[in-house]
């Protein structure tokens, strides 16, 4: 029996089979994967993923959905449910506890906390092989945006410094019950290899990116005034008269290192 979807939990259940199939085929689960699903809901993705992988760990905040998930999964495979807020789940500890080197994470995310979930996953990127997420299309556009684009910003820089971002396909509101007010997209995120990761202090980097885009129409020397002067910006090989939206993600890494030095 279907429960009434709860707005406060961001519940929009996928029902169109062809999109469910496209997502599962993009994930392409294998029997030896350690799959983690964020927000299984009524199981639209959970059951086909479970059928393909044989086992799956799902993280769900809504207690009411758990008995049906467990009952329906019993004949398909080994479903283990973590009843928790995903933002409180330590993915690195989960991988260690399960004795696996890395997790594959997927989910049709609750949109009201999509950015915090993305940043939370990035914090655990070393314990993750890949992620496949359904998000608002507008968020996926920002994640994948290149310098110079109107939607290039904090999310683009922080995500691209941690992962390869591959937008896959769009999903219309009618594929969900109830339909969300926005278009959606599925995106694949592949954490960068250790040799490709930046070595700036994460807090400094975050502070620089946040300050630079807080006043995106201003020159960097103005926007970063609290953190560094024009000489320091030049030492990072960046033009102090440039605007944040023209800088590549790596430019922010060099700026963050200059802050650390000064
Ligand atoms: N995967 C299902 C589907 O595609 O039909 C449901 C997707 S629905 C957009 C988001 C799901 O995330 C819901 O089941 C909701 O209860 C769950 N959820 C919301 N907030 C959560 C949180 N903080 N931690 C874990 N799950 C959460």
Would you write up a description of this structure?
This protein is α/β, with parallel strands linked by helices. The protein has 2 domains: 7-196, Vaccinia Virus protein VP39 (Rossmann fold); 202-261, Helicase, Ruva Protein, domain 3 (Orthogonal Bundle). The protein is 37% helix and 20% strand. It has helices at 17-27, 46-53, 66-73, 91-98, 114-123, 137-144, 154-160, 202-214, 220-223, 230-235, 249-261; strands spanning 13-14, 35-38, 55-60, 78-83, 103-108, 128-136, 163-171, 176-177, 184-191. The strands form 2 sheets. A 7-stranded mixed sheet has the order 4-3-2-5-6-9-7, sandwiched between helices. The protein has a two-stranded antiparallel sheet with strand order 1-8. Helix 5 links the parallel strand 5 and strand 6 (128-136). Helix 6 (137-144) packs across helix 7 (154-160) and helix 8 (202-214) crosses helix 11. The longest helix has 13 residues, at 202-214. It is elongated. The structure holds S-adenosylmethionine (SAM).
